[in-house]
Specification:
Length: 337
């Protein structure tokens, strides 16, 4: 039986944090053996907000190294850079022309990011979800593992595919596969260390709000020491009055590999003075193997280059075949005449 296909990606903007790891990449690693996977570094998405050309390339390379360091296995997964496969840009244009403008204006992430940027909002930022739809639809992905914040973008992807099939599919033969989101219950929404009601995010101006996968033990210690807590003794999950407590206990549970029950029992009588050092140690220990592997990969640039080259070649075969199908359905004159 052929395996179902998975596609996902992360933008090479800033450092990968525990939210990206627990909400996305760790789940990719957990499920990868069951699927045929494509994981891309979505560098075209990274330029939808003002960016620095001096660091884009390096950040893209670092993100790919982090995918490998987190445990992406090339036996069952392909790692590639979005801009290396030209079909992503081309399909975006084609989908742009069938996507109603008001579908994009409704996107929560666009509204939030547009407000933050004031005057300087690009057409690319509005079009970001169509590019994301192209990423997914090019690979006929069955499943898309992401954090909770991407749910709306996935619904849009499904709507775009359905609209395309409806308008251009022949005799009920769909052109594009409609993907399903894969959002794990735990870790889907890791919250900021400085405000338990806001998601941990790369674009938060405060470094203290997030723990990055490459933070040193001292940085981790300092951030957990300063993180927001509450005056109550004893830690509990799921108390709406205690968002910080729920977040920190969830981090402890996920990073220690314990069950929810085990973590709840262990921490039920702890004060913050006892819990914070425990969380610090657990975090440092959980990130150490990733950090060591990352260094090893970054020290072997030739290897990393070859992974990305091979990845782009494999990805292009699948992507170009979907693109041809789409162009045929739209009635373009074939270029092979
Ligand atoms: P930005 O804040 O600039 O939008 P981001 O931190 O949200 O960036 P992305 O590159 O947009 O990072 O997201 C990559 C993946 O990480 C996505 O699957 C997203 O759903 C997931 N993710 C991001 N933040 C969190 C979070 N706080 N908790 C769980 N998952 C998250
Ligand atoms: N918008 C996503 C990143 C992203 C993505 C994708 C995720 C771009 N293309 C395709 C899954 C599938 C985000 O996490 N901000």
């Amino acid at each position: 039986m052929t395996k179902q296909r998975v596609l996902s990606g992360v933008q090479p903007t800033g450092n990968l944090h525990l939210g990206n790891y627990l909400g996305a990449i760790r789940n990719w690693v957990e499920i990868q053996q069951e699927y045929d996977n494509f994981f891309c570094v979505v560098d075209l998405h990274a330029i939808t907000v003002p960016h620095d050309p001096k660091v884009l390339g390096d950040n893209t390379l670092k993100m790919a190294a982090l995918y490998l360091a987190c445990g992406i296995d090339l036996e069952c997964s392909t790692i590639f850079v979005q801009s290396h496969v030209k079909a992503h840009s081309e399909l975006t244009w084609l989908l742009n022309c069938i996507t109603p403008l008001n579908w994009l204006e409704r996107m929560i992430q666009f509204k939030e990011k547009a407000v933050k940027q004031g005057e300087n909002v690009s057409v690319g930022l509005l079009d970001y979800p169509v590019l994301m739809a192209a990423d997914i639809l090019l690979y006929d992905a069955d499943r898309v593992p992401v954090g909770e914040d991407q749910k709306q973008h996935l619904e849009l992807t499904r709507d775009i595919a359905a609209r395309f099939n409806d308008k251009f599919g022949k005799k009920k033969q769909p052109v594009l596969k409609i993907p399903e989101p894969l959002i794990s219950k735990q870790g889907a929404r890791v919250m900021s260390l400085t405000d338990g009601t806001k998601k941990m995010s790369k674009s938060d101006p405060s470094e203290l709000s997030r723990i990055n996968l490459l933070d040193s033990p001292d940085e981790i210690k300092r951030k957990i020491k300063k993180c927001k807590t509450d005056p109550v003794k004893g830690l509990t999950f799921d108390d709406p009055e205690r968002p910080e407590c729920n977040n920190l206990l969830t981090l402890y549970q996920l990073l220690s590999g314990k069950t929810k029950e085990e973590a709840a029992l262990e921490c039920q009588d702890m004060g913050w003075g006892q819990f914070k050092p425990l969380l610090t140690e657990t975090t440092i220990e959980a990130l150490k193997p990733i950090q060591d592997k990352y260094q090893e990969i970054m020290d072997n640039r030739d290897y990393l280059d070859s992974v990305l080259k091979e990845g782009a070649t494999k990805a292009a075969v699948v992507a170009n075949s979907t693109l041809s199908r789409v162009k045929d359905a739209l009635g373009f004159l074939s270029s092979s005449i």
